[in-house]
Amino acid sequence: MSRDPYQILAEQYGEYLPRVLNYMRLRVDDEALAQDLTAQTFERALTRLHTLRDESALGGWLFAIARSEIAGYFRRHKPQMSLEQVSGLGDATSSIEGLTEKAQEIAALRAALATLSEREQEILRLRFVAGLTNRAIANTMRLRENTVAVILYRALRKLKEKLDAQTQ
Amino acid sequence: MLKHNKRYEIQQARALSAQIDRLLAGEHIQRADIGELEAAQRLAQIDILLPPVPVGLQQRIERMLCTRVAPSPIGPTRLRPALWGALITALTLLVLWTLTPAGQTAWARVLVTLKLRQTTVEITPPTEGEDTEPLHAVREPLRDLLAVELIMGRAPALPRTLPEGYTLREMTAVSFPDLPRWISQPLYVELGYGPEQAPQSLYLREYRLRFREEGGILSYKQLGEATVEAVDVAGVEGALITLYGDTPAYSIVWERDGLLLELHSQVLDKNILLDIAQTVR
């Protein structure tokens, strides 16, 4: 790679910081923890700069680190889920009333996302929150690009059904 | 038939992905009425719905990036002394209590900046209404000076003179588990001195942070009113910090051989404290 990876990260972190934070916010329902995991992601990225292949791979590379950080966190702290959460009927849907419009939309999306499989959720998060392309997601998740496209297609169809069901 | 359906689904999926690419690029999209794309549009709005990056986190990442010295793209080279000086001075020392989110937001409100040789100490005032609870510290008693040496990786600095009756009473390694992982723990070793049969009243803290290591940071954030004055400690510039509480407490901070030392007392007069600091070797 011709450019110094540190320079690349230093120049582009501002673009990726909100994406990493929002990705973490969707993974853990705890703002302080999401911020800590975001900081840890950048901290780890700084120690692994030598593994950044080229500038165009920055997003995929950074989110591979973010995914590794969150996986490490969940290994250390096994998530405890209630039956309602497991069945996709967590607090998000039950407490939507009384929230602001923005908060209602976030809660609705979270609740709908929670009904999808972990792989579908992850692909949607990487596509829409991290802003990765199908190819970058395929590289990050070790899938074929067509597979990512199909999972995305099916996941969005399911998501639409869930969102429609919420409004009825 | 099954194969045909699968091929059709892949085509649909590719077409949808192309539309999503345009959607995320902010371009006009066709067929926004199709269900999948409608869901995609709602999902694409989530970054607007979520709160912006808090200032504290932004500053935390910026400091992380600033304190990391970029490797040379053309391999190891000898940096000019002036460049070394600039890089090392850029490493800011933020002594304890801080690095909490509240402490980070106070970063911008620097009361005074002291340049102690390779170290820059930034002192920030307390913030009104701020949660001033100090970071959780884990204190581990050390058996003897050999244990201190093993932790410090060198013989500990010790005062050659002490007030009458004072002896070394306790050695403690102090860690702060909530600090970022790249800060070596224990953060410092504290040597507690005092007269026999009385509480300890003089502390020498030796910080393990080495400023040529990646990411030296800290700032000294006092939790009450304070004044700072420059003092000479055995030929190097140090800072005498007076903390005003019910009774004033004093801290002298200075750097010796790349390590930060702090001498603190709530009992001894500042002149006595300064005399003791002069003898620390």
Description:
The complex is a heterodimer of chains A (168) and B (281). Chain A has 168 residues and is mainly alpha-helical. Chain A folds into two domains: 1-80; 95-168, Arc Repressor Mutant, subunit A (Orthogonal Bundle). Chain A has nine helices and no strands. Chain A is globular and about 55 Å long. Chain B has an eight-stranded antiparallel sheet, with helices on one face. Chain B is an alpha+beta fold. The radius of gyration of chain B is 27 Å and the shape is elongated. The longest helix of chain B is centred in the N-terminal third of the chain and has 23 residues, at 2-24. In chain B, 29% of the residues lie in helices and 27% in strands. Chain B has helices spanning 2-24, 35-44, 46-49, 55-66, 81-90, 101-105, 145-152, 270-278; strands at 92-93, 112-116, 119-124, 138-142, 166-175, 188-195, 202-207, 220-221, 225-233, 236-244, 249-256, 259-265. Chain B has eight helices and twelve strands. Chain B has two domains: 2-49, no CATH class; 54-281, no CATH class. Classes of the chains: A mainly alpha (168), B alpha+beta (281). The interface between A and B is large, with 47 and 42 residues.
Strand order of the largest sheet of chain B: 4-5-6-7-12-11-10-9
Q: Based on helices, strands and strand pairing, what is the structural class of chain B?
A: alpha+beta
Beta-strand percentage range of chain A: under 5%
**Low-pLDDT segments of chain B:** 69-111, 125-132, 211-223
Percent of residues of chain B in helical segments?
25-40%
The largest sheet of chain A, given as strand count, sense and whether it forms a barrel, is: none
Total beta strand runs of chain A: 0
